[in-house]
Amino acid sequence: MIPERYTPVTYALFRIVFGYVFLLYGLQKTAGWFGGTQIPLTSWPQGPAGVVETVCGLMILLGLFTRVTAFVASGEMAVAYFYVHVMQLGQPPMGPGGAMGLLVPQMNKGIDAALFCFAFLYIATRGSGIWSLDAVMGKKGR
Question: Which single residue of 37, 65, 83, 84 has CA 20 to 30 Å from 43?
């Protein structure tokens, strides 16, 4: 069991790591880095998704306007899960495996989107915490 006094540090690491990984996903799409293919920014839905992932990932990593940014990122991942992983990947009425494809992220390849969605929703409710630009600026509610 981790002592309660480490909660601010572990939460800050949680926010930083999720922001960093999200930023990397965005850079795969927008810059073609890390084995990705650069996607035109006007290509729907990957282009705008890449911009959201890059900008929001960086802002969450830095802890800047964290609540709003994480809420936007959470919404993008919810849309990605249902629009890309449930509705498009498997053409049956509810994705691969029918209704099970909707309920089981392993079946529709939506694990990343589901985890990002709820991690960012948690960050949106909790704020930036320590080691953030919001804390440096002294924003209330960070």
Answer: 65
Place of tokens 């953030």: 132
Distance CA 51, CA 93 (A): 30
Tokens coding 100 = 């099970």
Domain range for 27: 4-137
Decide: 55 and 37 in contact? Cβ < 8 Å.
no
Q: Is residue 131 part of a domain?
A: yes
Which residue matches tokens 């992983």? Answer: 85
| pTM of structure | 0.89
In the chain, the number of structural domains is 1
pLDDT tens-place string over residues 33-65: 999 899 999 998 889 999 999 999 999 999 999
Between CA 95 and CA 29 the distance in angstroms is 24
